[in-house]
Specification:
The chain is of the alpha+beta class. Helix content is 54%, strand content 11%. Helix 1 packs parallel to helix 7, helix 6 runs antiparallel to helix 7 and helix 7 packs antiparallel against helix 8.
């Protein structure tokens, strides 16, 4: 699958702002319609999406409009020389015929005058800039140090469908290793390798789904079906990622917030993610570095599968019993000793865990 940007250095919030800008130029929006009209007219354009003091400081000439944005208006203004400045919501055209003069010392790899200006303005101001090339027949988005070419919906949809097929295969494998882990948890046979395999697959699925989500944004109204397919495939994945971490992350002084562990997993390079050792290092599970070291779950994953279990009750159960094995061995009276667990809920927990144990072992050995 093709990389989403052509330059490696992204500022911390660049990715989020690119997603927001992609949504504003997706098919079905007035701004994208205006850009498509400019492409068909083969006139080219330089459009700044936002206006502040920095933009003012590098702008000369032109004239003030401050009129409602329309696709036809953008097309007509693009026939003139100079840049067009619109507001960040693409709801008003503020200025047209503007000569932009960014700092010439800012490095750029672009060759054409319009693209060089767009690149430097984006780097200097942090405002999204769109460059429409008449000769190359492309629309390029510049933001900070990132350049992204806006492709036709058909090309994006083709890559999105390939990614979706990959996600489906990874999700099947994730379900397999997740079910295997559940059976091992019940039998108290979990090792570092088993947990790392599930965390690895969860991270892979999460990364592919993020890529497809970007395609959905880029497709706009053409991405609705893709969005529904993605939502169905990844339902419950984010919750599962957190539950695995809460089940196995070290406690005591070594305990870290779930968000910190997720962030460390997300920082693993894609080429290193195939190494289970990199995953265990990020999760800090296992004491001797061996993948065959035994681990004991707290019980979050299996309790999450028991119907109608409030999060507060789950926390009290795990705090009281300390491990899944003790929970599985607990009697109705033992469960009722936990605050908030009455007779009805105690029976629900007991029966729910018993059914999960039976089904997991049957799936594993039958």
């Amino acid at each position: 699958m093709a990389p989403s940007t052509e330059r490696p250095a992204d500022k911390p919030d660049t990715a989020a702002r690119i997603r927001s800008t992609l949504a504003s130029v997706a098919p079905g929006t007035a701004l994208r319609e205006g850009l498509e009209r400019i492409l068909r007219g083969r006139t080219g354009a330089l459009i700044v999406v936002g206006h502040d003091r920095q933009i003012d400081s590098i702008s000369t000439g032109g004239f003030v409009l401050d009129v409602p944005f329309t696709a036809t208006g953008l097309r007509e203004l693009a026939k003139m020389d100079g840049a067009i400045i619109i507001d960040k919501d693409a709801s008003r055209i503020l200025r047209a015929g503007v000569h932009l003069m960014p700092d010439p010392s800012i490095p750029t790899e672009e060759s054409g005058t319009r693209h060089r200006t767009a690149d430097r303005v984006a780097r200097q101001t942090g405002v999204p800039v769109l460059s429409v090339s008449a000769s190359m027949h492309i629309i390029a988005l510049y933001l900070d140090d990132t350049r992204r070419v806006l492709e036709e919906a058909g090309a994006v949809l083709g890559r999105a469908n390939q990614a979706l097929a990959t996600l489906e295969r990874y999700k099947i494998r994730l379900d397999e290793v997740s079910d295997a882990l559940s059976a091992l948890e019940i039998e108290d046979l979990v090792t570092v390798r088993d947990v790392a395999a599930v965390a690895q697959r969860l991270e892979m699925v999460s990364r592919i789904s993020s890529e497809i989500d970007t395609y959905v944004l880029e497709l706009g109204t053409d991405g609705r079906l893709l969005s529904l397919q993605l939502e169905e495939l990844i339902s419950g994945v984010d919750a599962e990622r957190e539950l695995v971490i809460r089940d196995y992350m070290p406690g005591g002084r070594r305990k870290r917030p779930v968000e910190t562990v997720l962030a460390e997993l997300s920082r693993i390079d894609s080429s290193d993610l195939v190494d289970l050792g990199a995953v265990t290092a990020a999760m800090r599970i296992g004491s001797d570095g061996s993948l065959d070291t035994g681990l004991s779950p707290r019980g979050y994953r299996l309790l999450a599968r028991v119907p109608r279990m409030p999060a507060a009750v789950v926390e009290r159960l795990i705090e009281h019993f300390g491990s899944l094995q003790k929970l599985l061995a607990a009697s109705i009276d033992d469960l009722q000793a936990v605050e908030g667990v009455g007779d009805l809920r105690a029976h629900g927990v007991r029966e729910g865990l018993s059914r999960l144990a039976e089904s997991s072992i049957l799936e594993r050995y039958v």
